[in-house]
Amino acid sequence: MSLVLRNLQRAVPLRRVPLRQRMEMVRSILGVQKFDLGIICVDNKSIQHINRMYREKNIPTDVLSFPYHENMKAGEIPQPDCPDDYNLGDIFLGVEYIFQQCKENEDYYDILTVTATHGLCHLLGFTHSTEASWQKAGSKLSYSKSTPLPWPTAASAVCVIHPEGSMLSLTLHKCWAPMSRTGTCPSTCMYQKEKQVLEELGRCTGARLQPLSRGLF
Fold first, then answer.
1. Given a cut of 90, is residue 71 above it in pLDDT?
2. In this model, does residue 99 exceed pLDDT 60?
3. What distance in Å separates the CA atoms of residue 23 and residue 37, rounded to the nearest whole number?
4. What does the pLDDT read at residue 172?
5. Of 46, 93, 101, 215, which cross-links 141 as Cys (Cβ 3.0–4.6 Å)?
6. What is the pLDDT of residue 190?
7. Distance from chain centroid for Cα 90
């Protein structure tokens, strides 16, 4: 199955090839390479619009995750019943926001990889224990924080303006929630999984990548 990586912004330069290569490796490490995954790169205006729709927070952020499968336990691989179920969902990367938050000693593509990996972990059921703990840790992170979303009651359509002026309509089936519905996964699951994946990726690429959620622990 495919990894669809779309760049719908022109605010900052973006080379899709290095990000795609790394995220293909991350999918393989997580054992979900047989599932479709969408990564949509947007500017501050677009991700602020989506953030406002789903969280009523009128600010840009770095990553928003929209899982296809409901009630996923942390680390569980979906068990598809039909071809359409071979889908993990979509990750919106606020690449302009991430670029603006990067420090001089940080590599932009390293940060994109870390942030996208964080979003993918959310698609696989990994969560933070509470939104409060995540927001509290935000000031400890080196460049940004991800934003938890409420669960909508039904599929929702989001329109994003393409850089060339056309409008892309995306159907988002559900949004990542800050707490597991079962309440069985502690917040350390997210950090541990991110750390494991990024260490394995580092062994393959030579990059030294730190989990986005490392400031929580």
1. no
2. yes
3. 10
4. 53
5. 215
6. 85
7. 8
